[in-house]
Design brief:
Layout lengths: L1 H21 L3 H14 L5 H17 L3 H14 L4 H13 L3 H6 L1
Length: 105
């Protein structure tokens, strides 16, 4: 029961983050996704990969490319075939001036 409550709370935090993101409040959105990750049970890998991916999007908007790369790698560890995450990873590498590495990935 506690796990499902935590899963529900993590989804609520994600939804809050989505609203902040739409309103271009990327710092607040990232905080919500971090909160979702803190609450979400570890075995909910698909869910957690989405939170990492969403936080990566915030970090891209904030030009925090190292953080975006880190979040993308965490997301890809949980869900290796997520095209959106792979794209964000490439964007973050490009943002750091590593275009050649982005092409190889």
């Amino acid at each position: 029961l506690a796990m499902s409550v935590n899963l529900e709370k993590s989804r609520e935090a994600k939804e809050k983050g989505n609203v902040f993101f739409k309103n271009k409040q990327y710092e607040k959105a990232a905080e919500c996704y971090s909160q979702a990750l803190d609450i979400c049970p570890k075995e909910e890998e698909k869910e957690r990969s989405v939170y990492f991916k969403n936080r990566a999007a915030c970090n891209l908007k904030l030009q925090k490319y190292k953080d975006a790369i880190s979040d993308c790698l965490c997301a890809l560890t949980l869900n290796p075939i997520d095209i959106k995450t792979i794209y964000r990873y490439a964007q973050a590498l490009e943002g750091m001036g590593k275009e050649s590495e982005a092409l190889i990935q």
